[in-house]
Every structure is written in C-alpha cells, then in structure tokens.
Amino acid sequence: MTIPYPTIADCVGNTPLVRLQRLPGQTSNTLLVKLEGNNPAGSVKDRPALSMIARAEARGAIAPGDILIEATSGNTGIALAMAAAIKGYRMILIMPDNSSAERKAAMTAYGAELILVSKEEGMEGARDLALLMQSQGRGKVLDQFGNGDNPEAHYQGTGPEIWQQTGGTITHFVSSMGTTGTIMGVSRYLKEQNPEVQIIGLQPMEGAAIPGIRRWPEEYLPRIFQSERVDRVVDMSQAEAEEVMRRMAREEGIFCGVSSGGAVAAALRLSQEVENAVIVAIICDRGDRYLSTGVYDAR
C-alpha cells in the first residue's frame, strides 16, 4: 500500500480560526482571528506565493530554471523564497533596507538572492527596480501588486475556510492592506455567500510605519485593488497597532506581528459599535520575525 504523504506545499492553508478570550471584554460579539502564521513559511503570503508560481507554470509563462524577481517588504519575499525552493526556481528579491533582520535572514535561508534599496526609496523604489531588471532581461517579475493569481489564492482558499469555520455566521471581516490580495479575494468570496458581510480594510495613518501595510500613493496603488470590495477603511496609528500586538501575546497567548495587532485593534474598535456580531480578523504572521526591531521589548 502506498501512503500519500503530503509535501510541504500541501501544508499551506487550512489555518486555525480561534476566539479571543480577554481582549474583547464584556460583549455580545464574537471576535475571531485566523492564524496565518501557521503556514509553513510563517505568513498569509504563503498562499499567493504558491498560487502565483503554480498558475504561471500552468499557463506556460515560466518553467523551472527560470529566474524570478519580486519587490517585497518581507512576508511575500519569504513565502516566494520557500515556493521557489519547492518548485526549482532562482529567486531574486528586492526590498527596503529597513526591513527586519529576521525577514532578510529567512529569505536567504531559502536560497533567495537579496537586493536592498534605501528606506527613502521604499517599496515604490523596489517595485521600480524589479520592473527595470525585467526590462533588461534579468528575470521575470511575478508582480504581486497586479497579478490576479494573488487574490485568487484567497478567493479559493482563505475565504471559503472562513465561511466554513464560522458556519456562515461571519458578519464582519477585518484585514490589513498591503498588496490588498487578501482583502480582495476574501471579500469577493464572502460577498458572494452573503452580500451583507462587511469588509473592513486597514491602512497606516499618515506618517505611521507598520510593516507589511501601506498607504499607497495613487500612482502605486496595486492594480488588483478594487475599492468597491471594501466597505470601510480604518486608519491605524503605529502606537495602537504595536500596543495591541503586545497585548495579544501577553493576554491571549497569540504571538503576532505589528499589522496583525493593527487588524485586531480595528476589530476591537468595531466591536464597540455593533452587537451580536461575528468579527474575523487576519493574523498575517508570527511575532518572532520582528524581535530584532525592539517592538516586543518590555515597556
């Protein structure tokens, strides 16, 4: 008898959805968080990373041995480095040099080549360089910001999982917005099941630096983003996101990153406005890839 053992790629998705016990306080609402840090490379980006490579292969756009290029602020880069290692691609990642040491180390551990741009150039500069390198024939850009295979991963996976795990009772979905792939794909799926489900997106306040999410200038707004799929956008301060992140670890035993703290902070705000709601927030990644930044230092 041949046992169908899974590969590491088969372990992406089907992440737990758990209830917050202390942070919500006395409320008629149920606050749930989806633990995307349980994916093999540690974040929600494992889903679109595998999706973009596998679907590009299926279309014949890439083949093993090709060089792939991507601009990233961290999690997508780690996920793509893992997916490239699984699939047999050389991966070049371009990112701002102020990203955490853990993120850089994880990418190179998977065998990716890392190119850094300055903090001032930021993600916009990283994206521009990726396209320049592609125009010079140095590789193929996957383009998480404009690639429909990014939200499709969440339409096919994350959205259905949330619907099934809540038994179709979800009333509100809260997600940080970076590439916007998660919120686009999940919104599309949930709205098809129940148009009354409210979709809340999170962006940093002006001047706030929350890893993984952005307040994009109009000319760099991800092409996959469709504003009509988001019912409400919440501006989040860095201080509030970091404070709730630390409270998640200390009061709920959930060790997560800053953008996840922001998503939960937004869910807690929302919980003050509604009753008898089922609110689901995405926990994008784990907190261990932020330790060197000092955000978890005792205070």
Short description:
The protein has 299 residues and is of the alpha/beta class. The protein has eight helices and ten strands.
Average predicted local confidence, pLDDT:
94
Helix content: 25-40%
Gyration radius, to the nearest Å?
Answer: 18 Å
Strand proportion: 15-25%
- Span of the ends, CA to CA: 57 Å
Indicate the low-confidence ranges by residue numbers.
none
Number of helices: 8
Principal-axis shape: globular
Question: Biggest sheet, in brief?
Answer: 6 strands, mixed
Q: How many beta-strand runs?
A: 10
Give the spatial strand order of the biggest sheet.
1-2-10-7-8-9
Which oligomeric form is depicted? single chain
Helix and strand sequence: EEHEHEHEHEHEHEEHHE
Helix/strand-derived category reads alpha/beta
Organism: Stutzerimonas tarimensis
Enzyme class: transferase
GO molecular function: cysteine synthase activity
Pfam families: PALP
Account of the 3D structure:
By secondary structure, this protein is of the alpha/beta class. The protein is 36% helix and 17% strand. The chain has helices at residues 46-59, 75-87, 101-109, 122-135, 149-165, 181-193, 238-252, 258-271, and strands spanning 17-19, 30-35, 67-71, 90-96, 113-117, 140-141, 172-176, 198-204, 232-236, 278-283. Helix 6 (181-193) links the parallel strand 7 (172-176) and strand 8. Helix 1 packs across helix 2 (75-87) and helix 2 (75-87) packs parallel to helix 3. The chain starts with 16 loop residues before the first strand and ends in a 16-residue tail after the last strand.
